[in-house]
Write a structure and sequence with these properties.
By secondary structure, this protein is an alpha+beta fold. The protein contains one helix and eleven strands. It starts with a helix and ends with a strand.
């Protein structure tokens, strides 16, 4: 009789524990879904991109994260419609950088209405002179929904030294970009898909912009190629 009662209590406790676990799991899953939905809704409903201007800052470094950092370089403001390249950026000695950081910078004195734009990127080798430059690669236009550029490399797709960016613009009546962010990804082995680092993104314009943090290839050592992304909400 005692064994039967003990077994019954054990079964009851087991069922209670299992029920509690299922409930907690379901509740957490629902909470995660609600948080993610809330974030997405806040971004999509912010609409602050229509009332702000943007530019892209960047810097590179070598020999460990945060080390041998080069100068911060910058594109022009998009609303100024300059279509000018940044200066060539590299690590402190312009030789085989290991990582890069992008920043989305904002201002409220001008806006992005009736203006289309895309990001251009170019890599070179041989120091800071821009020698041995590879092909210019472009993201799709904002009016096309943005997206990734093709992989940019120097002329031989091996251990670039410097990079530059431009935000190219053109008039586009009726276009209002509600939100935007930048993305960056590096790889090695030429443009190998197996040696890609994690794609890094700036915060959205509606969140005030900011930094991607450090982006590198899969082992943060002498990458060969970079691609850039323009993320758009219209």
């Amino acid at each position: 009789m005692k064994k039967t009662m003990t077994k019954g209590r054990f079964n009851l406790v087991s069922k209670l524990v299992l029920s509690t676990f299922i409930c907690l799991t379901a509740c957490q899953s629902n909470l995660d879904d609600e948080i993610e939905t809330s974030i997405e809704n806040n971004v999509e409903k912010a609409g602050t991109g229509a009332n702000r201007d943007i530019k892209l800052d960047f810097y590179l470094g070598d020999n460990g994260l945060g080390n041998q950092q080069g100068n911060v370089e910058s594109t022009g403001w998009v609303a100024n419609k300059q279509n000018q390249w940044s200066e060539w950026g590299g690590d402190s000695n312009f030789y085989d950088p290991d990582w890069i950081v992008l920043n989305l910078i904002t201002r409220t004195t001008k806006n992005l209405k009736n203006l289309d734009f895309r990001i251009a990127i170019q890599l070179s080798d041989g120091g800071s002179s821009g020698n041995n430059a590879g092909l210019v690669r472009y993201t799709p236009w904002a009016s096309q929904g943005g997206g990734w550029s093709s992989w940019a490399t120097d002329s031989n797709a091996y251990d670039f030294d410097a990079v530059r960016f431009m935000i190219q613009t053109r008039p586009y009546t009726g276009l209002t970009v509600e939100d935007v962010r930048f993305g960056i990804q590096l790889t090695d082995g030429g443009t190998s898909s197996s040696k890609k680092g994690i794609a890094k993104y700036t915060p959205w314009l509606s969140q005030g912009g900011g930094s991607t943090g450090y982006a590198g290839d899969s082992n943060f050592y002498d990458p060969d190629a970079i691609r850039v992304k323009l993320d758009i909400i219209k």
